Amino acid sequence: MKKTIIILCLMFGFLSCNVNVQKKESSLFDTNEQGLFGRPKLVEQRCYSIKDSLGNLIKEKINFIETFDLLFDSLGNLIERKHYGIDNLFWYKIKMYYDKNANLIKTEQYDKDGQLNEIERYYYNAENLLIKKESPYIGNNKWLQIEKYIYSSNKIEKSKETYITNFKDTVLYNEIIKYQLDSVGNIISEKSYDDSLISENYYKYNTMGLKIEEKCRNAYRSKIFNYFERHKEYDKYGNIIKEKGFYDIPDKKVDEIIVYCYKFDKKNNWISKLKYLNEIPVLSFERNIEYY
Q: Are 181 and 158 in contact (CB under 8 A)?
């Protein structure tokens, strides 16, 4: 089976070593967390579950979580994200707004009928560091979620306090996350608390600033999992090519290996991607990219 995956990846255009490397320009609100080369204007992504039928990969249902359109302005800021549901029908969209420093200051979410149902506002200090995020719920107009960020003077520690109120100063939920940062601002540890420790995460990065290791221990009283760790490998363009995961779930321990195979356009952005879980093909991604 491993040999089959390698052959499929080679046929799929996974090896693209003759392409010149250029700096990857990430949007300031890049929801793919991988950035894009060049100056993209529109990215249309569709994702399908797939199965292997006698060596042929057959598309099945659309994966609505990974099916969306991204619209960027000429500065590289993501200004609109459209989501599509079952049968590739429009579901909802999010519009983004920025200040003169390219800081995201507001998002608006609209349903398929054009009705505004959620607004998020972002606030920054003089150093352009995010200090507060407000998320009022338009639909029921009964509660407000607030996130406050506090930074240490040496910039290697920060904390986030999240609480939900009912607009009458009554706190319905409160959580604090404490972060440790490395010298370039990457989060290397993260601990969550309510009235006690909920979970703790630890991260490692490569020289490109991409996360290569993640370890998480769940200390919460209602446990979905006890512990998990994940290791990632990337190609020279910053695309994930392999993930190894271990999960300690109540009454069960799970190992998984995920492999990705890509096909690229002339800008070195992937336009096709296959995902294999434990050597079984599970998802097919397709992207159409328009540039400025």
A: yes
